Amino acid sequence: MSNILYFQLFVKTQFSTCSRKMRMSGLCKVEMSAFMDGRGAYGNGAHRLEPTRTGPLESVARGKPKHLTQIVAAERLKVTDRQVRRMLLRIRERGDAALVHGLRGRPSNRKLAFRFEQKILARLRQRYADFGPTLAAEHLAKEGFTVSRETLRKWMTKAALWRPRSQRVKTVHVWRERRASFGELVMQDSSPFRWLEDRGPACQLIALIDDATSKFWARFTAHDSTEEDLRTLGGWLQRYGRPVAHYTDKNSIFRTTRRAVIGEQLQGEGARSQFGRALKELGITWIAAHSPQAKGRIEGASSACLKPCRTAW
Length: 313
Hints:
It contains 13 helices and five strands. By secondary structure, it is α/β, with parallel strands linked by helices. It has three domains: 3-99, no CATH class; 114-167; 185-312, 2-Layer Sandwich (Nucleotidyltransferase, domain 5). A five-stranded mixed sheet has the order 3-2-1-4-5, sandwiched between helices. β2 and β3 (216-221) form a beta hairpin.
C-alpha cells in the first residue's frame, strides 16, 4: 500500500468515530504536507522542504502508534526532543518554511574569500593558462595556494579558462562529395573479421571501391600484407584500369616512418613504402585518410558484405 493511502486509512480509522473537533499538531501537519506535494495544512512552502528533512518526516507518518510523542518523534528524526520542540515552535510561527535551512539562498560560511579567488585566477592567467584544473591545483599547492581541484575547476569554468566536457564543441565530420566520374578516386581498406564464423578460418577482406560509382571489388586473404594489398590492387587494375588517386588509411603498408635515404633526399622526395613506390611508378596519387570517418564509404561497403557472407555458406 502506498504511503498516501496508508496515511489516509490511518487518519480515517483513528478519528472517524470522534465528533469532537481536534487540533492537529504542527508535526502532523508537516507530515501531511510532505505526502500531499505541498498542498498540506500550511499551504505553500512545503515544496521548499529539504529532502534530508522530509525523509524522516515521511518515516514518522508511516508509524502505527495512535499518539506520537515528542520523544518518539525525536528518535525517528534522529534529533533531540528539545530540537523537536524548537521545530514545532518554528512551524507554528512560520509554517513549513521554518524547516528550510537558514543558509538557503545565502553564501556558505565555508566559501573562500573573493579576493583569494581573484588572486588564484590572476596566477592562473599569468603562468598556468593552458593547464587543466587538476594539474593547476597541484602546481598552485607547491606555491602555497591550497585549493581543491573541483573548486578550481568551477572558478576556471566561470572565468573561461576551462571548458567542461559537456560544453566542448564536438568534432563534426562533413560528408565529402563524390568525385565526378569513374576512376578519379579509388578507396582501399582491409577488414579483419571471422567472416565465415566457425565454418572456416579467420581471414582478411581487402576491398576497393570507386568513389564516384561505388563499383566494388574485393578478395579474401589469409593475412593483410604488402604482397596481398598489391595483388588486390593489381586485380582492380586488370579489370577497371588505372585510377587517378588512391585513398587509404595510414597503415604502415602504405606509409613508412623511416627517414628518407640519400637518393630520395636528392630527388626532393620523402620516404616511401613498397606500396607507395608502386603507386609512384604507376603515376597514381596517394591520399591518406586522417580519421576512420574519412573512409566511411569503403567501411560501409565492407560491413554490407558481412550478412551475405554469413548466409551464403
